């Protein structure tokens, strides 16, 4: 029987890398969801009428009420401004996120914030709600994946259980990444529609992407990198397990398609001198249903072989020492 061992060190390193990438993705996605800096830009606001303390450049022209000459006793003063074109407007910075849209105000220092849901056109509000739902599902699945990877690192010493946790964590990461991508794209579409069809006193004059937008896509990249790393770990362990066991069935063509099952079934049925593994009585003369069960069975069998090999070496050493005496 061929002695084999599973690459536990390699698996733990890859799992640790996946957990770090997943935690980074979870942190960045949460920060971008709560931020109001998805889009930034300027709003074109008309300047107020001429008056004291206002920046508009105005001059006064007295006009008589009776339409007579300039010597009328009570002329009416008309304000005229020299500013034309864009000089009649002021440009205020604004920022917008999934929850609020804030802009500078002219009367006093500070910002005025409004709910982005109220600014969204009625035809786009359903898409906005779907985007928010996708974002929450994205973060929830990322959290589940992180918990599975953390469980694999801290509390699992069973290779078969580790394979199952890695598989579920990878699937959860892939689903969360897809939902996150869809949510980001839907919110971008909603903002562009709001910028064109939203309230006139809010429509931006010019806008660009903020740091939260880029953070969200970096989070998506880390999420997919974590999924690929976890899938790579799972696939490498399974392929190495199959490859090493296939060496025992080169002379048995019928076992080639399912060599790992034939190998483990043969091990369970032959019952080597130490007897069958007590933790896996269900494998005795029964087919192996999955790779993870095969890894569990072989791991305990391999550990038992190592213990028996060590005891045999001790016996040989003790007998040789007796013979020398």
UniProtKB/TrEMBL annotation:
Pfam families: GSG-1. Keywords: Endoplasmic reticulum, Membrane, Transmembrane, Transmembrane helix. One of its GO terms (cellular component) is plasma membrane. The chain crosses the membrane at residues 20-39, 127-155, 167-191, 211-234. The keyword Transmembrane applies. It is found in: Endoplasmic reticulum membrane. It is a multi-pass membrane protein. Its main location: endoplasmic reticulum. Gene3D superfamilies: 1.20.140.150. Interacts with PAPOLB. Belongs to the GSG1 family. May cause the redistribution of PAPOLB from the cytosol to the endoplasmic reticulum. This is Germ cell-specific gene 1 protein. It comes from Bos mutus grunniens. The gene is GSG1.
